[in-house]
Amino acid sequence: TWGKSLWQGNWTGLKGFVVATADSNAMASLFVSQDFTGRFSMYLVFDYGWGTWVFGEEQTYLEIEAKYRVAERLYLFAQGREFRGVTDWDIDLDLVMGLKYRF
Fold it and tell me: Is the whole-model pTM more than 0.85?
């Protein structure tokens, strides 16, 4: 696991599980977040798994979220997610939009 701020408002993390077990396969992950202003931020998660436990082949997971702070604890967000085998690169994100309230 490695994590660091590479520039102002950024945090980047890399994580690797290089040994497969009975419950999970080897995997590498990338996480990047960026605060653009005091109100607007985005993050990206990308996972690559070498195992065959879901699709019978290696798989990927992609998640992207944009978030805008409307009020002190209220956020408007849009998020896209994609989970599929590596031979099917037709990206078709499942989009979710809504409001988040942070307690």
Answer: no
Maximum alpha-carbon separation in the chain: 46
Alpha-carbon gap, residue 84 to 92, rounded angstroms: 10
Per-residue pLDDT of the chain (103 residues; tens, 9 = 90+): 889 999 999 999 998 877 666 566 778 899 999 999 999 999 999 988 877 665 567 788 889 999 999 999 999 999 999 888 777 667 777 899 999 998 8
- CA–CA separation, 40 vs 78, rounded Å? 12
- Full DSSP string of the chain: -EEE--STTEEEEEEEE-S--SS---EEEEEEEEE-SSSEEEEEEEEEE---TTTSS-EEEEEEEEEEE-SSSEEEEEEEEEEEETT-----PEEEEEEEE--
User: Which tokens in the block code for residue 74?
Assistant: 């209220």
The token pair at 101 is 């309230």
| Strands 10-17 and 94-101, bridge-based pairing | unpaired
